[in-house]
Design goal:
The complex is a heterotrimer. Chain B is α/β, with parallel strands linked by helices. Chain B contains seven helices and seven strands. The chains are: A alpha+beta, B alpha/beta, C alpha+beta.
């Protein structure tokens, strides 16, 4: 019954979605007055229904109801409850249901809280949101029904890919999805504004919180995914430029650009057409990401199951929505009144540079990700594009972008003089020069990219705090703090990346028990292996006694695990975090004569990568709170006036 | 604002043209996607095309018995003079449960079926057959997926129809649903 | 006039940036895209030593041997027509075994030995690297 209730709720939500679209279109064709009061409740109920539907699926997973095909294929009664729970979205159908639920819920939130926009624009926005919804409901119900029954019921489930049995990964997809799908709101806003030709600062201010919120979730999701890959795969890397990773990075790049261009539109009423374009591109990248990961067109480390029918369906949706939006853009954006002018040497000039660089990086990542497809289509030749390409092309642009980030916030809006700018950036330049001296004097030579990265990180850290210079800190608006912290986070993260790539040490040995190996500041002694067993796995566990100088010795226990359902092996790295880096240990195969392969890494300051990402997200959060509060105060004032 | 009207016109035309560029770029991408999806090497279809082995004799393999009560399976066992089915299955595979009734139906229709248990343990295979029915004559244990690779098969379940000389005449990828049974029977009939 | 002028400048800058990014991407791809090759293809058309590519095929029966250093292994990757010796230092991934498909990333050295930096992980028993899907790994038994 639970499954049937979930499916019924889904059908009902789809019907309401259709109703919302019809209402919206009718209202736009007439004068559009009064339609919003009819559409709002429809959007809200639709969101609640999808939430109910998703809750039903979670319930089925928690009960391990094996008469449901999805549960039988992806769960197992012996699993810990947390993984039964996260197993709900650890598969194609469940994750698509989550996607649709977030889509409908974000529509509900707009219906509930959006009060700035003109009624007609809001109607158009909700209609656009419903138009996106319809396609995905159809996809869910007809091409990937999560509630399909299995008759007869299975005796036991198949389990969940052991790699996905990890608390970090349990909450990684939902976070990313909120980010992905939140961008649908920006897309709907853009389409709505094109339909009603209502593009301007008000529209930008209305859109900004939604973009910010999505961007925060994307940032956290990408950072969490990167940390998961780092400790779960046991390869010692934190970013592989794998298509799945790129699929989440591309929406983030577009959203970052959008965030900055929306600010220009809100503050100076410039970049109208460009902002609309970016909003369309950002959600297109989200859909593309879904398509890449879900259709099996690009197979990668964690690509899911392959199903051409689904691929076809998603391709159809992409053509409909992206193609439709871009066609609308080409037809209508010319009728949007052009925005204001500005000087090149100004805050908005710097933001244009930011947007161009981000778009260029986005283009490079997109080309690199899709190039193998294109080549195969033309010549039939198979090739792969890996980290060397991305590092060589996106790396320098990212450094340029960060340099622009140091200068941008120190420029005034409207117009500025180079002379004054020079004075303002003298301190950061000094800091960067000191960092360069330090590197040259204290360390062995390192590669050019990490070198530049470290120097820039030092300079940018100084520059990002500079906007607070000589300001009354108590009266500084919250979003300025947000910007400062987010930019500081970029510097911190970049420092971590540069340190890791320049100063990591790696030891690969076949160790007999009793042997000691030095890596970084640690002496690692191999004590031998022993078998251990968990709920649904058995493992060989290595014992490593580790000592740092004269300090306290401690034990690390990396494992090589074998899972029974389904049969899989994984390497569980054992990691020790110190203030200045991480010791990362992996156990490989044994030769039967007592020797085992060990892989040991010392990665100085590697944790800064994710710490920086958290700072970036925190900055975004402060900015969001600050903007929303200020917005509310303005509205209250307007109400009194 | 005094500009040459000709230039003015030109810029306007240029601008209109530029606005369509994003759509054009997107269209090119869609084209590549569609191509990759339907004709590319990694396309699902590609994996679903009939194996290159159709019309070829079964590649050589020899598998240990999976169950003590029953002989194992080698390619030599297949040339029996009568067409038969070779079914790849595994106890850990859910679609295999879904196709079990159809296999039973085929057996009841007098079709001889041999099985290859992929990466499986005897006790699990035994429990699976107890629970879902046992239509098989011989069951080979393919612990290292060698037979799977030899036949160019990439997953379970998968079913091959071989004729009386052990030549592969048909391949069915995925589970055999009720609507596929006539198709399998027709392939067996043609192989006579 | 100023307005038009500025817009044009911006448009030109944007176009130049896009073209530059495109060229950058193409240059990067020319140097860094790794081709996929099977042993048969290599014997037909040798790959220059040092050029990175992906080698795909099957690990030959009985070919995995440990080298004296204890961390490197040597094995043969074969398809229906040819074999390529591979040396790999590191921890072998899940489900790496003789007679099963493998994809290795690396380059040939001067002696024609493929030095692998990575062996691609297979994460479960149903996963087949897409490149291997249509490689004839075993050959025709009648030959």
């Amino acid at each position: 019954m639970i499954a049937e209730a979930g499916l019924a709720a889904l059908w009902l939500a789809a019907a309401l979605c259709g109703l919302q679209l019809v209402f919206g279109v009718m209202a736009l064709r007439s004068d559009g007055s009064g339609a919003v009061s009819a559409i709002r409740p429809v959007a809200i109920v639709q969101g609640l229904l999808t939430l109910f539907s998703f809750a039903m699926l979670v319930w089925l997973f928690l009960r391990t109801d094996l008469s449901v095909e999805l549960v039988a294929a992806n769960s197992h009664s012996a699993k810990p409850w947390l993984y039964k729970f996260s197993g709900t979205w650890g598969n194609h159908e469940g994750s698509m249901l989550l996607w649709v639920a977030i889509l409908a819920l974000s529509g509900s939130l707009v219906a509930m809280f959006e009060s700035r926009l003109k009624e007609r624009t809001l109607t158009a926005t909700l209609a656009a949101q419903a138009a996106i919804g319809i396609g995905f409901y159809a996809f869910l119900i007809f091409a990937s029904n999560p509630f399909a029954r299995l008759s007869p019921a299975a005796p036991e489930g198949r389990g969940l890919n052991p790699l996905l049995q990890d608390p970090g990964l349990a909450f990684h997809p939902p976070t990313l999805y909120v980010g992905y799908v939140g961008l649908s709101i920006a897309f709907s806003f853009a389409v709505g504004a094109l339909l009603t030709r209502d593009v301007g600062p008000t529209f930008a201010r209305a859109m900004r919180p939604w973009v910010l919120a999505s961007w925060i979730f994307l940032t956290i999701g990408i950072a969490a995914g990167s940390y998961w890959a780092y400790y779960e795969l046991g390869w010692g890397g934190w970013w592989f430029w794998d298509p799945v990773e790129n699929a989440s990075l591309m929406p983030w790049l577009a959203a970052t650009a959008l965030l900055h261009s929306v600010t220009v539109l809100a503050t100076r009423d410039a970049l109208r057409a460009w902002t609309i374009m970016l909003a369309v591109v950002a959600f297109s990248m989200s859909m593309l990401g879904t398509f890449l990961v879900r259709s099996g067109v690009l197979t990668s480390v964690h690509a899911f199951a392959v199903d051409p029918q689904r691929g076809t369906f998603i391709l159809g949706l992409l053509i409909l929505y992206i193609g439709g939006a871009l066609a609308l853009y080409a037809m209508r954006v010319g009728t949007v009144r052009e925005g204001s002018q500005f000087e090149f040497v100004s805050r908005e000039g710097a933001l244009v540079a930011n947007n161009l660089l981000l778009s260029a990086i986005l283009g490079i990542v997109l080309i690199g990700t899709l190039y193998p497809l294109g080549v195969e289509a033309v010549t039939g030749e198979q090739l792969s594009v890996g980290p060397p390409y991305f590092n060589a092309t996106a790396g320098p642009l990212a450094l340029l972008l960060v340099a622009a980030m140091a200068i941008g916030p120190l420029l005034r809006w409207r117009r500025d003089q180079w002379r004054n700018v020079m004075g303002r950036i003298s301190l950061p330049v000094l800091v960067a020069a000191l960092a360069l001296m330090g590197l040259v004097l204290l360390t062995s030579p390192i590669g050019i990219l990490p070198m530049l990265g470290l120097i820039l990180a030092a300079g940018v850290a100084a520059a990002s705090i500079a906007p607070l210079w000589k300001r009354n800190l108590r009266r500084t608006p919250m979003f300025v703090y947000g910007m400062v912290i987010a930019h500081l986070g970029i510097a911190v993260s970049m420092a971590g990346m540069a340190f890791e790539s320049a100063f990591s040490e790696e030891v690969l040995v076949a160790a007999s028990p009793g042997e000691t190996h030095e890596v970084g500041p640690y002496a690692v002694t191999f004590d031998g292996t022993r078998p251990v067993a968990g709920a649904n796995w058995t493992a060989v566990e290595g014992g490593l006694t580790v000592q740092r100088g004269e300090g306290e010795a401690f034990v690390l226990t990396p494992q090589s695990r074998m899972f029974s359902s389904p049969q899989t092996e994984t390497n569980e790295a054992a990691i020790r975090t110190a203030w200045n880096g991480q010791l990362y240990t992996v156990l490989g195969s044994s030769d039967g004569a007592g020797r085992s392969q060990l892989r040991l890494w010392w990665k100085p300051f590697v944790t800064l990568i994710w710490l920086g990402a958290l700072l970036i997200a925190l900055g975004g959060l402060l900015s969001l709170i600050g903007r929303v509060r200020r917005e509310r105060r303005t509205m209250e004032r307007e109400a009194w006036a | 604002m005094s500009t040459d009207p000709a230039i003015e016109k030109q810029t306007a035309a240029m601008k209109r043209f530029i606005l369509w560029v994003p759509l054009a770029i997107a269209a090119i991408f869609f084209g590549f996607f569609a191509y990759a999806l339907y004709f590319g090497n990694s396309s699902p279809q590609q994996r679903a095309i009939e194996s290159q082995l159709i019309g070829e004799p079964m590649p050589e393999f020899a598998l240990e018995p999976s169950l003590a009560s029953r002989p194992g399976l080698s390619s030599a066992d297949l040339a029996t003079g009568e067409p038969r089915l070779v079914n790849f299955f595994a106890s850990w595979c859910v679609p295999c449960i879904a196709e079990a009734p159809q296999l039973m139906q085929l057996r009841d229709a007098g079709v001889a079926i041999d099985a290859i248990a992929v990466r499986d343990r005897p006790q699990d295979v035994y429990a699976f057959l107890e629970r879902w029915g046992d239509p098989y004559e011989r069951i080979g244990a393919d612990t290292q997926s060698e037979a799977q690779l030899a036949l160019g098969s990439s997953g379970v379940p998968e079913t091959f129809v071989v004729d009386g000389d052990g030549v592969i005449v048909h391949q069915h990828i995925g589970d055999i649903r009720p609507e596929h049974v006539p198709e399998i029977l027709a392939a067996l009939e043609n192989a006579r | 006039m100023r307005a038009k002028h500025q817009r044009l400048t911006l448009a030109i800058i944007a176009i130049v940036a896009v073209v530059a990014a495109g060229f950058l991407a193409l240059f990067g791809l020319r140097d860094n895209a790794a081709l996929f090759r099977t042993p048969a293809e290599i014997s037909a058309e040798p790959v220059p030593a040092g050029q990175a590519f992906r080698l795909g095929g099957m690990v030959a029966q009985g070919s995995i041997e440990e080298l004296p250093d204890g961390v490197s292994i040597r094995f043969l990757v074969q398809d229906a027509e040819a074999q390529v010796p591979v040396v790999y230092a590191g921890i072998t991934p899940d489900l790496f075994a003789e007679n099963s498909g493998v994809v290795a990333e690396g380059a040939l050295d001067a002696n024609g030995v493929f030095v692998a930096d990575h062996i691609l992980a297979k994460h479960d028993e149903n996963y087949m690297p897409p490149e291997l899907a249509d490689v004839d790994l075993v050959g025709d038994p009648r030959q």
